[in-house]
Amino acid sequence: MGEHLSKTAPLEPLSVSDSPERKFGEFLEIRGEKLTEPRRVLVRHIFDAHKHFDADELAAELQAAGRRVSRATIYRTLRLLVDAGLLRELRLTNRTAYEHDYGYPSHDHLHCSRCNKIVEFRDDSIRRICDQISRDNGFRATGRRLVIEGVCAECSKARPPKRMLDLI
Ligand SMILES: [Zn+2]
Ligand SMILES: [Zn+2]
């Protein structure tokens, strides 16, 4: 299960005044919904530690912790947490992962298509370029999705790419 933070740029969580649980409760209230016990369990579990996870990994962790939350509730709550701005969805080539958005600085990712490792990085020059492009187009940017897909250093070493000759 993959928590692989970049060694060069560890990201520090931001300090926030409201707990994710409280934020989520307010969001649900506006929509006329309730922070049910399974939803509370999920928010607490998810916001315990920052990492990238998918629905399957979350379900496995909850099961291992002896918490009974149905698949349907997990999927629906993840959706709601994204809509509430608490979680960010990362669409990768072979899966959809989630991570904290609330209380965590904006950043981008590298994704290894062999071992599924996700590496976070933060580079101000990317932000500056995106700001400039937005300004040039009279666009008010609210976010961006940048994932560099490829093969990580360890996987490149472990399995050298097929030689072109083999493919002929
Ligand atoms: Zn890899
Ligand atoms: Zn991340």
Short description:
The chain is α+β, with helices and mostly antiparallel strands.
Provide structural commentary.
There is one protein chain. By secondary structure, this protein is α+β, with helices and mostly antiparallel strands. The chain has 2 domains: 15-101, Arc Repressor Mutant, subunit A (Orthogonal Bundle); 105-168, Dna Ligase, domain 1 (2-Layer Sandwich), CATH 3.30.1490.190. It has helices spanning 20-30, 37-46, 55-64, 71-83, 124-136, 153-158, 164-167; strands at residues 87-91, 96-100, 108-112, 118-121, 147-150. Strands 4-3-5 form a 3-stranded mixed beta sheet, with no helix packed on it. Strand 3 and strand 4 (118-121) form a beta hairpin. Helix 2 crosses helix 4. The longest helix is centred in the middle third of the chain and has 13 residues, at 71-83. It is globular and about 55 Å long. The model is unreliable at 1-8 (pLDDT under 50). Residues 112, 114-115, 117, 152, 154-155 line the site of one zinc ion.
Give the arrangement of secondary structure elements.
Layout: H1 20-30, H2 37-46, H3 55-64, H4 71-83, E1 87-91, E2 96-100, E3 108-112, E4 118-121, H5 124-136, E5 147-150, H6 153-158, H7 164-167
Parallel strand pairs: 3-5
Antiparallel strand pairs: 1-2, 3-4
Helix pairs in contact: 2-4
The chain binds zinc ion (ZN) (2 copies).
One zinc ion is lined by residues 112, 114-115, 117, 152, 154-155.
Helix content: 25-40%
Task: Give the class from helix and strand content and strand pairing.
Answer: alpha+beta
Strand element count? 5
In DSSP terms, counting alpha (H) and pi (I) runs of 4 or more, how many helices? 7
In the CATH classification, which architecture of the largest domain applies?
Orthogonal Bundle
Q: What's the CATH first level of the largest domain? A: Mainly Alpha
Q: What is the string of helix and strand elements?
A: HHHHEEEEHEHH
- Say what the CATH topology of the largest domain is: Arc Repressor Mutant, subunit A
The ligands bound in this entry are: zinc ion
Q: Mean pLDDT, rounded to whole units?
A: 88
CATH superfamily of the largest domain: Winged helix-like DNA-binding domain superfamily/Winged helix DNA-binding domain
Domain module tally: 2
Uncertain runs: 1-8
Q: Please outline the major beta sheet.
A: 3 strands, mixed
Shape: globular
Strand content: 5-15%
| Strand order, largest beta sheet | 4-3-5
Spatial gap, N to C terminus: 37 Å
